[in-house]
Structure formats: C-alpha cells, structure tokens
Amino acid sequence: MKNLLYHGLVLVGCCFCCFCSDVRSDMPMVSSPTTESSTTHLPRLNQCVLDTILRYGKQISPTYEQAVCTEFVVKILEHFYPLNKIDKARINIITSKPIPDLLQQNSPIPTGVVYALSQKGIGTPIKQLDKVKAGDFLQFWQSNLGSWTWGHCGIVKSIDLLNNTMQIYSSDPSTNGYGIKEFGIPQHIYFVRLQ
Asked: What are phi and psi for residue 100, nearest 5 degrees?
C-alpha cells in the first residue's frame, strides 16, 4: 500500500508541475511543444512526458557518450516512476540471444521499453499506428537486407502516416546526444503509453 501511495504521489506531483506556473525557481517554465500531434488531445501524462523532455533532455544527454538512447529513456521515465534493475535491463534489451531471431519469434524482449513498462504495469502497448500520440515511448528495429539489425528507442514527437515517417526525441550519434530526429517507420516498431 505504501508503494502504491508513493507512486500516486510521484505522478500527481509531476503532472501538477507540468500544468502550473508555480515550478521550482531553478527550472525554466516550458511551453507546450508545437508538434502536429500536440494539436489533438493528449493524455495528461503524455504532456508531462513532453514537458519533462523539453526541460531535462539536454541535461540528461549533453552528448551521446554520456547517455545513449536507452539511458535517455530510463532517465525520462525515472521522473515518473522508480525503475529497478530488471526494468532497466528490459529497456536496455539485455539478452544473449540474437535480436533477429527474437524478432522472428515475436518475443517481447526486443520491444524494450514496451516490455518493461507493460510488465511493471505502468504502460499500455499501442498496437495501431493511428492511435500513437506525442509523448508515447517507442522501440524499433531496422534490418539491412535481412542480415544486419540495429535498433533505437525514444519518445514520439510526431508521426506522419501519409509519408510513413516519425520524429522522435532521443539520444542519437547523429545529434551527438539529445535531439529530434526523423526516421521512416519500419516493420518492427513498438509503442507504449505511460499510465
């Protein structure tokens, strides 16, 4: 019961700060992001996630060497819930099995943050692309001629189903840490919404 009460207080405190002007004096007030997805109604926690990214993103990952994509996601999530070693291992996709084999087997392991939040009971997987909103977390995998696979994770900024592209907040080598990057939407992509 204490643990549940703690989680409730963390969430209430975070969401309250996201929507009020009375924030800590050392934290600059951040206006709502202007993305295509933000013009539609966002769940309250999604807006809190976006505000947290804008407020702390550069601080969390000033360079890619200081925080890779999974560490960026972990640090954003820790503003909402405490994460244990198992949660972090799932987000970091710690496994001895080859990712292509796991993808072919439809294993939950390569879904990373989706698997972690679902198993912890604090995230709802999103199966349909047209239901994805700004502030949702994601993990995806790309393959090159079916022989080489690389993955990336982050938080949705916007998604364009007509052009099959998305913009995500993440830590990436090409942005040398925190930044916004556009990707094509691959076959192996997984989304989760924080509860």
From this structure: -55, -40
Taking CA atoms, 20 is separated from 16, 38, 56, 145, in Å, by 6, 18, 17, 49
pLDDT value at residue 189: 97
Chain segment 96-117, per-residue pLDDT in tens: 999 999 999 999 999 999 999 9
Q: Are 110 and 83 contacting, i.e. CB atoms less than 8 angstroms apart?
A: no
Q: Tell me the pLDDT band of 143, cut-offs 50, 70 and 90.
A: confident
CA distance 171 to 136: 16
Where exactly are the structural domains of the chain? Answer: 2-18+41-194
CB 118 within 8 A of CB 139: no
Q: Cα(154)–Cα(112) distance, rounded to whole angstroms?
A: 11
Distance of alpha carbon 156 from its chain centroid, rounded? 7
